[in-house]
Design goal:
Layout (H helix, E strand, L loop, with lengths): L2 H47 L10 H33 L6 H31 L14 H30 L1
């Protein structure tokens, strides 16, 4: 393996661990915020009434908890995707064209589909509780990068599956 390739894989491994740690911390933060909201809701509601960001403080409590739940689900999917990517990178040091990597890529694709589907109610809830001019109201929804990522994951899964089959055929003829 060339030095540049192994250096790139090493950097990628490090970045994946960093991203995994950041997403895990953010996931725990969202869970903590949910717990804190339960405890200090009266103070939050009073502050939200004076805010220029949220519309109706009294009606937003269930929506805010639903928003946190959807956000936690997106972060859980991100953790799953990162773990699958780590396994892919780990296999790149040896033979990456194995059926397990095709399965990993397909699982990543389906997790990305889940993220896009979760983004729909996430965006709807955010628009429902936020002032239309706030950045908070623009969150969620399907985006082109997400769709392209899904397509890329499924295409790469097919490529890896074909590569693994070709490798098996080649080994069978030798």
């Amino acid at each position: 393996m060339p030095k540049t390739h192994s250096t790139l894989l090493g950097v990628t491994r490090g970045l994946l661990w960093l991203m995994l740690a950041l997403v895990a911390v953010l996931f725990l933060f969202v869970i903590g915020v949910g717990a804190a909201l339960i405890v200090i809701w009266p103070e939050i509601a009073a502050e939200a009434k004076n805010s220029q960001v949220f519309l109706d403080a009294d009606a937003m409590r269930p929506q805010l908890f639903a928003l946190l739940g959807f956000f936690a689900a997106v972060l859980a999917a991100a953790l799953y995707i990162l773990r699958k990517l780590q396994a892919l990178v780990a296999s790149a040091a040896g033979d990456p064209f194995i059926p397990a990597n095709a399965d990993r890529l397909r699982h990543i694709g389906w997790a990305l589909v889940a993220v896009q589907l979760l983004a729909l109610p996430l965006g709807s809830i955010a628009r429902g509780i936020a002032v239309p001019t706030s950045q908070f109201a623009d969150m969620g929804g399907i985006n082109l990068n997400g769709i392209l990522s899904i397509l890329l994951a499924f295409v790469l899964a097919a490529v890896f599956e074909k590569g693994a089959a070709m490798r098996a055929d080649l080994e069978g003829t030798v």
